[in-house]
Write a structure and sequence with these properties.
Layout (H helix, E strand, L loop, with lengths): L4 E2 L11 E4 L2 E6 L1 H13 L1 H7 L6 E4 L13 E5 L13 H19 L3 E3 L7 E4 L2 E4 L5 E3 L9 H18 L4 H6 L6 H7 L2 H4 L2 H20 L2 H9 L4 H16 L14 H4 L4 H18 L3 E5 L5 H8 L4 E6 L2 H14 L3 E5 L19 H4 L4 E4 L3 H5 L6 H11 L2 E6 L5 H7 L11 H9 L2 E8 L6 E7 L1
Parallel strand pairs: 10-11, 10-13, 11-12, 13-14
Antiparallel strand pairs: 1-2, 2-3, 3-5, 4-5, 6-9, 7-8, 14-16, 15-16
Helix pairs in contact: 3-4, 3-10, 6-8, 12-13, 17-19
């Protein structure tokens, strides 16, 4: 849960700060940004983007609502609160691609109104289901004739370069991006590229040459050169062509590793019979219908089968988590095609995103953001308990901490999947039994219902946290 008061993530912006008050989201507009704010408001751009769902909805409110802590603010606006805040290092390839295309679309639409974006931060984009939405209204400002695209470097490092390492090398961006919160530098990417790639026109102009110029500028730029650089002009038509070229290029990018993964075919290769699968879906559906949760976290979401079941049963929003890139991509495409209020995100559950950034408060860890009413952890716990050596008491304690209600699936050692996992290692998991599992769970929660849903002994357990 985001803490009440000033949002630590907004500390960098002199235009205005974000405040959370009684679950509502407010943003101040300081004198520094008031002129641009008024100009943008006068053009009708915000209303157009809001109508199309491209920018978060907002309205002006009385500054007195925030009291003395916002002294000096010219305006206060209230933003629509989003179901869940995610970060670029949690997005799948198609999600990052969708976010980058949204940023370019916002920039192009803005230029047509005499407006531009002051930066190109990927953190200015969020998702509602699989649909990206722009959230930083104050980064829109009046365009100055002939100005360069000051956000080009940031766009490349936070959007383009992470897409390219997957598109060229088949390497997911997530871990690298999480370790370098401002994105993947062009200098780092250039160091990986073979010469034939460096000389392709789009990579040369958007990655290689900017990295070379940046190095040269860092070493040699003096006051006179800096002044000359600022005096250069970029015609508007050229600016638009750059944006349109990037949009066309990124639209065609695809991951290099297009084969199947271990889990992307799980929905077809699991050990359930069709009848058993029906029992499992019914159990989940009954759980949702009886509890009526608004937000569900689906751990080990795979391609979204049970997220879809939960949504059909009445839940308002599902945030899914998985570490398999192909499964995430299928889930994201499914959410788009079926228009599901479902956002699948990357998560290595044995190493979840921590609090990090400035003062370890700028980017919140998973536990701080996931305010779910319930969780689903189906065919999930054995991957951590056996696959990653997480002791059952610690694993269950973490799961129960995520939401007050949930359904957990216990997969016994007799199940073919666990047998397969143990084929490759010594069975040191004497504690991994159904009896111990239920005993540990009962020490943390009330067990409300259980059902064996497969011939191999898989058991679903519904619980309520004490």
């Amino acid at each position: 849960m985001f803490e009440e008061g000033l949002d630590p993530a907004s500390y960098r912006d002199p235009s205005g700060r974000v405040y959370i008050r009684d679950g509502r989201v407010f943003r101040t507009v300081m004198p520094y940004a008031s002129g641009d704010f008024e100009y943008v408001q006068s053009t009708g751009l915000i209303e157009e983007l809001e109508k199309e769902g491209l920018i978060v909805e907002s309205k002006q409110v009385d500054p007195a609502i925030l009291g003395d802590e916002i002294a000096g603010a010219c305006y206060v606006i209230e933003h629509q609160r989003l179901p869940f805040i995610s970060y670029p290092y949690e997005w799948s390839f198609p999600a990052l691609k969708a976010a980058s295309l949204l940023h370019l679309e916002i920039q192009l639409r803005s230029l047509a109104k005499g407006i531009t974006l002051s930066d190109a931060s990927a953190y200015n984009v969020q998702f509602v289901g699989p649909k990206p939405i722009f959230i930083d209204r104050l980064s829109l400002r009046r365009y100055q004739e002939g100005e360069f695209w000051l956000g080009h470097k940031q766009f490349c490092e936070q959007f383009l370069n992470p897409l390219l390492i997957r598109s060229i090398f088949g390497i997911p961006h997530n871990s690298w991006y999480r370790g370098a919160l401002e994105g993947i530098t062009s200098d780092d990417l250039v160091g990986l590229l073979p010469w034939r790639r460096k000389l392709t026109w789009k990579i040369l102009t958007n990655v290689v040459l900017p990295a070379v110029f940046q190095k040269k500028a860092t070493k040699e730029l003096v006051a006179e050169q800096a002044k000359s650089y600022k005096n250069r002009k970029l015609p508007l038509i050229t600016f638009r062509r750059i944006l349109e070229s990037l949009k066309e290029w990124i639209s065609g990018l695809k991951p290099a590793d297009t084969g199947k993964s271990v889990w992307s075919d799980y929905a077809k290769t699991h050990s359930y019979s069709s009848e058993e699968l029906g029992h499992k879906r019914k159990f989940v559906s009954n759980f949702i219908e009886s509890l009526k949760p608004k937000l569900v976290g689906d751990l080990g979401s795979n391609t979204g089968d049970y997220a879809a079941v939960a949504l059909m049963a009445g839940v308002e929003y599902v945030v899914g988590f998985d570490y398999d890139q192909k499964a995430l991509e299928i889930a994201f495409s499914r959410a788009q095609e079926e228009r599901l209020q479902y956002l699948p995100l990357y998560l290595d559950a044995a190493n979840p995103a921590p609090d990090q950034g400035w003062a370890q408060r700028e980017r919140k860890g998973l536990n701080s953001r996931l305010t779910a009413d319930a969780i689903l952890a189906l065919a999930f716990t054995h991957h951590l308990a056996i696959g990653r050596n997480i002791p059952l008491p610690e694993l269950l304690n973490w799961l129960i901490s995520l939401a007050p209600h949930g359904v957990i699936e216990f997969v016994p050692k007799s199940d073919p999947m666990v047998k397969h996992m143990l084929n490759f290692r010594e069975d040191i998991f004497q504690d991994y039994t159904e009896e111990r599992f239920l005993s540990y769970l009962e020490s943390l929660a009330n067990i409300l219902e259980t059902e064996v849903v497969s011939s191999t002994g898989r058991r679903l357990i519904r619980y309520s946290r004490r």
